[in-house]
From TrEMBL:
Protein's recorded name: DUF4912 domain-containing protein
Organism: Halarcobacter anaerophilus
Origin: domain of life: Bacteria
One Pfam family from the record: DUF4912
InterPro entries: DUF4912
Length: 216
């Protein structure tokens, strides 16, 4: 007669084999059933009025647009016979640049330098020499290549705080690698030099500019 422990072991093994068989069958079934492949088609256009301008660098801007069929129909615009007119305006409405296109959907690179200003793109048509706006883009602020040296009062404050000459120069230059003309840069440095010379005449040693020690 088998002991209770032997019977328990036998039953355990039988259950394990049943479970393994079931698991194997499930695995086979899962491998045979392939997931459905869903394909999404990217539309060629969304038929939604869109106009955007993006800053690429200091002298390049990317514009993309879409004029919907509804807008073209509403404004009686036939792009087979006329063109869309795009113009870049500053915040005061002054036209800085323009181009045209016969396409309701497109993009365009502007190669021009708009220095430190807010600009916007407007799209429309030209009728009898007059621009008829359809809609406008987002507004962006263009890059600045200006070297912004502080005022006389700001210089005085920096010196009182114990900044060195090199720290003053470093703290006043914005976008150094995109700086303006060399003549303008030399002019600004000359202004700084004259300021230091005036300071020395007033009893401020030039060595105090170079030590860079900050006072408490």
């Amino acid at each position: 007669m088998k002991t209770d422990s032997e019977n328990l072991i036998k039953e355990s093994l039988e259950n394990e084999n049943d479970f393994s068989s079931a698991s194997h069958a499930i695995d086979n079934f899962a491998s045979e059933v392939k997931p459905l492949e869903t394909e999404y088609e990217i539309p060629s256009r969304y038929n939604k009025d869109t106009l955007r301008i993006i800053l690429v660098n200091t002298e390049k801007y990317f514009v993309y647009w879409e004029v919907s069929d509804e807008t073209l129909f509403e404004k009686s615009i036939d792009l087979g016979k006329e063109k869309l007119y795009f113009k870049i305006d500053d915040i005061d409405g002054n036209e800085l640049y323009s181009f045209d296109s016969s396409f309701a959907l497109g993009d365009y690179y502007i190669n021009s330098k708009f220095e430190d200003m807010d600009i916007v793109v407007k799209v429309g048509t030209v009728e009898d020499g007059e621009f008829k706006e359809l809609f406008s883009s987002n507004m962006v602020h263009t890059f600045s290549s200006k070297i912004n040296f502080p005022s006389q009062d700001e210089y005085d404050l920096l010196i009182k705080k114990g900044y060195s000459w090199s720290e003053i120069v470093r703290s006043t230059i914005e976008h150094f690698d995109q700086a303006g003309s060399s003549s303008k840069y030399i002019e600004e440095l000359q202004r700084l030099r004259n300021f230091i010379q005036e300071g020395e005449k007033a009893g401020v040693s030039s060595s105090s500019f170079l030590k860079g020690k900050k006072n408490d």
